[in-house]
Amino acid sequence: MSARTAYRVARLMRQTDDVLQPWHETRRQLIKRHGSERPSTDLEKNNGADDVVSEVVPGSQSWNAFQQELKTLLSETVTIEAVPLVVDELPSVSPSDLLALGCLVEDGDGSPKVRPV
Question: CB of 31 within 8 A of CB of 73?
Answer without folding.
Answer: no
